Amino acid sequence: MYRTHTCGELRQAQIGQEITLAGWVHKIRDKGFVLWVDLRDRYGITQLVFDEERTPADVLEKAKKLGREFVLQAKGTIIQRTSRNDQIPTGDIELLVSEFTILNPSLLPPFTIEDETDGGDELRMKYRYLDIRRDPVKDNLIFRHKVTMEVRKYLSDQGFIEVETPYLIKSTPEGARDFVVPSRMNEGQFYALPQSPQTFKQLLMVGGMDKYFQIVKCFRDEDLRADRQPEFTQIDCEMAFVEQDDILETFEGLTRHVLHAIHGVDTGAFPRMTYDEAMQRYGSDKPDIRFGMEFGELNALAQHGDFNVFNQAELVVGIAVPGGASWSRKEIDAWVDWVKRPQVGAKGLVYVKCNEDGTYKSSVDKFYDTEDLAKWAKTLGAQKGDLLLIISGDKAASRNQLNVLRMELANQLGLRKTDEFAPLWVTDFPLLEWDEDSESYHAMHHPFTSPKPDQLSLLDSDPGAVRANAYDLVLNGNEIGGGSIRIHDKEVQQLMFKHLGFTEEEAKAQFGFLMDAFQYGAPPHGGIAFGLDRFVAILGGQETIRDFIAFPKNNSGRDVMIDAPAHIDKDQLKELGLKIDLPSS
Ligand code: ASP
Q: Cα angle vertex 241, ends 239, 243, to 5°?
């Protein structure tokens, strides 16, 4: 037996007992006549003590040669500590070692295994197995496990069956590029890794599985935006014989269960907002509703004077920043400059100070009188002491710019509290979205999403106006889940493909299997997928999903620990029937 106990569980009750522990040398303090070693495992740290009086001389001598991260098995008696350490749960006791075995020595680790490490990102990723020994990373992985278990428990209790779907498949379009795998047995042909199990879960519904889920890896070859991983995990779900409301209720239930199980919070029923409303009130389809600063439109109140910037704008839209009236001119100017940066792209920013004494001071005092400014303040829900910030121009662009500003203000004002959870559903997304580059419509969600049945006829006349039975679950300003009611009718699916620019042959070649399946009694169905990595990160009160993934890739999609991707040798290429000019080096 390697150990009788773990390094995290010993207390005063075990004083006097003979104990064996195993773990890593966390820290050594050598005072000459006495030596302490902090022994660490997944469960905690226990102090080992060796001293001249009580430890056999050869054991003490051997202990003096220990190094950080050596793996030990240590036997001895639990004794009371003379000075207790109330920083750790085992701080009342220590193990007086009578004998120990070095199970494995260790090289000096390239960074310290501490909560605050001296290792930079790259180094930590290269030695991720050492990084995982650090509490913050280890705790995140354990946290992820807990969330995952709660998800499985809830869904299984609701009658969902976890079914695995294949990874070596054909393209499933979710708007990214495919990762492909060459087939040795079918020279010149390739599998695609799933961007999601979308088509398979729909086929499971045709197969009568009724309620499916899977915690599953998805693969998307996207230009890596901040905090995206080329492989990531979804909680993928599908149900048959359901309408949108059934799905929202079921997965609101899941989310509430997880929030309650993990944090003991009950959020109550989730607000629901249409996409159009979310864009109007927050300029975003994933609004953070933990704080106010809702948008107010001022066209009617501001387009009557000589201020041409507003007069010519499609939209004049503003927010009220709590307490902002006390900001100095310099502070306000800094925000004006901030929104003009190319990343935000606003042409300018109009401000109005709503002073405590009831007066107003604005950057457009030349054009508007107090009565005007008071009306704006009222529309934006401002209190005395607030600052109005107003953007104008093209509707979509202004909303987007004001959203970026609102979020940054909230960050800086500390309004995005990580221990507060504000979920909501955003519904009725547009079915199609115009793509400037290709000058064509793309599916906003994916091609299997059903248009609202009464809007089918609009597909020809006004495609951009068609709304879909598609919804997102938003948590604290992040999209954590998205799904839709699907098309389950061959003709409608064909029509969709046509509108997405597929020829009949192309649609048949790529998705013939699905349309065939629809001819054999496909039930009405719909579903959703949660991004597990992000869900876990938000629940954990953190920003980056990488911190919750055991072995993540870096920003160029590389695993720097195993050094992947890598070249493969000529023979392997030949076997796969691939001809590639390898860079000479
Ligand atoms: N397959 C979709 C996605 O990956 C989710 C869904 O529609 O259920 O976003």
A: 85
